[in-house]
Design goal:
Elements lengths: L21 E4 L7 H14 L5 E2 L15 H12 L6 E4 L15 H7 L3 E3 L4 H9 L4 E3 L11 H11 L7 E4 L1 E4 L2 E10 H7 L12 E5 L5 H13 L2 H4 L2 E4 L10 H11 L6 E3 L12 E3 L2 E5 L4 E4 L5
Parallel strand pairs: 1-2, 1-3, 3-4, 4-5, 8-9, 9-10, 10-11
Antiparallel strand pairs: 5-12, 6-14, 7-11, 8-13, 13-14
Helix pairs in contact: 6-7, 7-9
């Protein structure tokens, strides 16, 4: 199977239209039934006209995984090539998405042009599909929906009603000033590190790299950032955009200090505190689309070529 990647922005999916069915997939960790029920209720509020497909195997469990690898891969592939679906929303993260990469026909999924949305562990799939030519969406999963803030709910509601919010501007805090633009790649910091040395690492040269993380103490956050630096990632990218580093309302000071020390002197624009990640704020980011940033002015604009 070829893993060659394009150097230009990926093509957009068929964005959901109002009333189109939505499907839930569980490509990673096992899904708690109560958590799923609460998330589905929130999804029904956000997309009141859309029928929601939830197959029984979404609740399958093999230890910490939502079923066997082959079953999860087959279900995701079916949904991503199913005509008439408005989009596929992942149930939760955890671990397991990267185990599916060798089992999936990514080009067949790209040809299906279905929207795939998730984040955290789903970073592996989002970037792999976008690198093959399909814009994917780093955004809320079903389990996170009940906790979303108003801005994130509004952006997602517009998208699911057939009115994608592109270009979307996110506001953050400058760490290193400057302007940059490029294809947007990234997601969960741990997962980007796990893709190093594999055929599924996206093409980062000249890109804008966005990162988020959760449940990592300062020394482990430092270790992850150091790994990217030692691998030459920060020497390739045109800019770095950081979202939440925890799921707390206020970021722990020691995490902020690590970021300042490790990223402040890269020589490229760096923004921090952007509203995406595991907390209440998780605005949608189109992976593989064109983005612009002005770190001095404190903004990242995504989906520039999707308007």
């Amino acid at each position: 199977m070829s893993h060659s990647v394009p150097t230009s922005p990926a093509s957009p999916p068929l964005w959901p239209e109002a009333g189109q069915p939505l499907a839930v997939a569980a490509p990673a960790g096992a899904v708690d039934q109560g958590t799923l029920r609460a998330g589905l209720a929130a999804l029904a509020e956000l997309a009141p006209e859309a029928p929601i497909r939830v197959d029984q195997l979404v609740l399958d469990r093999r230890g910490y995984l939502a079923g066997e690898d082959a079953a999860r891969a087959s279900h995701l592939a079916e949904l991503m090539t199913q005509p008439g679906l408005g989009g596929v929303i992942c149930a939760r993260g955890g671990f397991g998405a990267s185990r599916l990469l060798p089992l999936l026909d990514l080009q067949a999924m790209v040809r299906g042009r279905r929207l795939l949305m998730g984040f955290s562990d789903l970073t592996a799939l989002l970037n792999a599909l976008a690198a093959q030519g399909l814009v994917t969406l780093h955004g809320p999963m079903v389990a996170q929906l009940p906790r979303l803030d108003a801005a994130s709910r509004q952006a997602l509601s517009l998208l699911l009603a057939g009115r994608p919010p592109w270009p979307l501007t996110l506001e953050g805090r400058p760490l290193a000033q400057g302007r940059a633009e490029g294809v947007l790649w990234g997601g969960n910091l741990t997962m980007i590190c796990h893709l190093l040395g594999t055929p599924w690492l996206p093409p980062l040269r000249g890109a804008l790299l966005f990162l988020e993380e959760v449940h990592e103490p300062a020394y482990r956050l430092d270790r992850l950032l150091t790994q990217l630096e030692l691998a030459g990632v920060f020497a390739q990218v045109a800019g770095v955009a950081l979202g939440a580093l925890s799921n707390q309302d206020q970021e722990p000071p020691d995490l902020i200090q690590v970021v300042a020390r490790r990223l402040g002197g890269l020589g490229v624009p760096v923004l921090t505190g952007l509203p995406f990640g595991h907390g209440a704020s998780n605005l949608p980011l189109p992976v593989g689309a064109w983005a612009q940033m002005d770190a001095g002015a404190g903004w990242l604009r995504v989906g520039v070529n999707l308007a």
